[in-house]
Amino acid sequence: MSEKKRRAGAGAAAGGSASKKPRVSSAASYAESLRSKLRPDASILATLRALASACSKSEPAGASSSSKALAEDDPAANYIVVADQDSASVTSRINRLVLAAARSILSGRGFSFAVPSRASSNQVYLPDLDRIVLVRRESARPFANVATARKATITARVLSLVHAVLRRGIHVTKRDLFYTDVKLFGDQAQSDAVLDDVSCMLGCTRSSLHVVASEKGVVVGRLTFADDGDRIDCTRMGVGGKAIPPNIDRVSGIESDALFILLVEKDAAFMRLAEDRFYNRFPCIILTAKGQPDVATRLFLRRLKVELKLPVLALVDSDPYGLKILSVYMCGSKNMSYDSANLTTPDIKWLGVRPSDLDKYRVPEQCRLPMTDHDIKVGKEMLEEDFVKQNEGWVKELEMMLRTRQKAEIQALSSFGFQYLTEVYLPLKLQQEDWI
Amino acid sequence: MSEKKRRAGAGAAAGGSASKKPRVSSAASYAESLRSKLRPDASILATLRALASACSKSEPAGASSSSKALAEDDPAANYIVVADQDSASVTSRINRLVLAAARSILSGRGFSFAVPSRASSNQVYLPDLDRIVLVRRESARPFANVATARKATITARVLSLVHAVLRRGIHVTKRDLFYTDVKLFGDQAQSDAVLDDVSCMLGCTRSSLHVVASEKGVVVGRLTFADDGDRIDCTRMGVGGKAIPPNIDRVSGIESDALFILLVEKDAAFMRLAEDRFYNRFPCIILTAKGQPDVATRLFLRRLKVELKLPVLALVDSDPYGLKILSVYMCGSKNMSYDSANLTTPDIKWLGVRPSDLDKYRVPEQCRLPMTDHDIKVGKEMLEEDFVKQNEGWVKELEMMLRTRQKAEIQALSSFGFQYLTEVYLPLKLQQEDWI
């Protein structure tokens, strides 16, 4: 079939640009020669099976991964790590909080909330956990104090609203929440901030509060799951794929015969993989957040990783932002540090496109882009990040990027043919176990 | 059921904010009183059935709507209107073009392409068609001329690439196309521009060239279709919905028992409607492009409208941008004017949220936002647009917006309860046939 396609491609080139001779540069012919290096798929699949099996053994059994153990073993630990809770549990936590406030009022002491500090000085990276977490440090938010009266009121109101949402069994957005009492909240930043406070106070994730973010991500491949009770087969979602649901707690019954999860930075690469039904040749689950990862996609990836225990391979642009996207998936973003246990997926392998690939695959000079000053600044900052420092291979790649001052997009591989990504580059990467 | 929910809501409010008495503002109680105005669903459904039946009669039979007739009746018309073509037809058009160039070269005259001008001075709004179209005015692009040699080469190259893509039966993005010959194209703006030229030269849509845009839109509701052969039932897509496919030509077998299409501006409102399974109460298809409409969503909406002949009701923010979004769906954007026949959906009804709704539904003052100077400028510009001028109701609403200098988001309705949108506002709108 690849032979047939090659002929079709060559024929088309000759037919299409009648004014020019078919031009075959040395880079293109080298790129084509890599095709002959590919072993039969059965051999590559054996490699992937070994990877998947190693991955499933390295994780402890059960849904609670090692990263959650911290909070569960020692609730009075020095760090705040929130966890997913069901509606009944969140509701009863709210009830306890409100009951305590009522008792305090009745005893003549007024009421006050103990709110964990989410200041950035309070956010630390824990190498053992490989995540950013929040140091446990609470401050009082008394109602009978001019400085905190308004915020205490907002806190009470948000608790009440979340309680109502949970009782109705629905999900709402942050914006919805804000609009229920614009007069009190003033602007959305205030209700959003208090919502995060409430999440920390109750020790549960924001999605447990049924306040969801908008969705951006899509998924296709060897995966079935139920979205709000509807059975979804992601091998039958055409090229468009299935939109990743905003409310992760409505996702259940995750099943898969995939050997790995392929995390893709960009929409265009996702489309290529979906149209070529890459997952039928190499059983995998393909997902993308279309750029900067949103909360829903991060929650979904983590659920897949924890429940299916599959290796996660990432395909991102060869630039500092590709690495930054990996860091958000792996270590979380700073302003959601208290929720990092539920939002992060540890141990993602950097499959490509890596700076060393540019020479290895002889990506033509004109398809590489010079790094801007800002790129270089971000790259240097990444080099100082703990999660990069931990992985020697990543440090080397990043140093090479900064030395050559070149970056490239995944689509640069299109210079060897539109399907080079799915027909040569990725199969060869998998065959050579070329991830770090 | 609504009674039960009301009680649950009241109970939650009392339980949640222990420090305050349940507060019922007059706006909220009025909002709640509207619930009693609702007739039984059967009665509202009868209204919708009448609407759907009127809509299907008003359109001519067959897939080709009146808006396409222009190009088909008179190919030498004064306007360029491209049409969807299958791969074989596009391929043979390219062959003819290239053959003509070859003959011209062999006869010693070199070669030249006749390229329609896409300059904005060439783009006009046709009231009869209610769309922006391109005036037919071609310029020569000879290869043997220093000024046009490069562009003629790029044109030949793009024709060749499109030919190759069509022969392979795949779809690619504009970015992929650019990367196949960075050296020649220089930057993506050039290959993109020539792609639009090629589209006009061949008289076919960009999606007929198999060059697709990235997808943003999602759909749920009473709709089934095939995406690349996979049967999709949009009532079984959970809360997340089905991602609208980037390549409309892979969509087939569209079937529906819906009575109308509900076009939603924003993700949050879409989520509310999906979670509440609004389409089960009032059979409809719900879709959103999550803000500014992308090409894939516009193509998809048009296909639904043309094949199903359903009325389209729009739910957008009450601000100038809400109206602007409607204008893009209805009349197209200026830089794609040559493709407006395939991208636009005429006769969309403005259901809400309309400026007059703010008082009618007594949306609290604090949930309305003051219009900025920029908002007012955009609003005044919209007032000058032909497509607004045509509809007296729209003019009045827009004038009211500019007079009151107030805008409001769809979510402002959340101030009456998270499900007010789906339980009261929309049913009442449908019952009262309150669209313009």
In terms of topology, how is this protein built?
The structure is a homodimer of 436-residue chains.
Chain A: H1 2-16, H2 26-33, H3 41-58, H4 66-73, E1 79-80, H5 87-106, E2 112-116, E3 123-126, E4 131-135, E5 138-142, H6 149-168, E6 172-173, H7 174-179, H8 182-185, H9 188-202, E7 211-212, E8 218-221, E9 224-227, E10 230-233, E11 242-243, E12 251-255, E13 260-264, H10 267-275, H11 278-281, E14 284-288, H12 295-308, E15 312-315, H13 320-331, H14 340-343, E16 348-352, H15 355-360, E17 369-370, H16 373-384, H17 386-389, H18 392-404, E18 406-407, H19 420-431
Parallel strand pairs in A: 6-7, 13-14, 13-15, 15-16
Antiparallel strand pairs in A: 1-4, 2-5, 3-4, 8-11, 8-14, 9-10, 9-12, 17-18
Description:
2 copies of one chain form a homodimer. Chain A is α/β, with parallel strands linked by helices and 436 residues long. Chain A has 2 domains: 26-58 and 216-431, Dna Topoisomerase Vi A Subunit, Chain: A, domain 2 (3-Layer(aba) Sandwich), CATH 3.40.1360.10; 74-212, Winged helix-like DNA-binding domain superfamily/Winged helix DNA-binding domain (Arc Repressor Mutant, subunit A). Chain A has 19 helices and 18 strands. In chain A, the strands form 6 sheets. Chain A has a 6-stranded mixed beta sheet. Chain A has a 3-stranded antiparallel beta sheet with strand order 1-4-3, with no helix packed on it. The two termini of chain A are 31 Å apart. Chains A and B meet through helix 1, helix 5, helix 6, strand 6 and helix 7 of A and helix 1, helix 5, helix 6, strand 6 and helix 7 of B. Chains A, B: It catalyses: ATP-dependent breakage, passage and rejoining of double-stranded DNA.
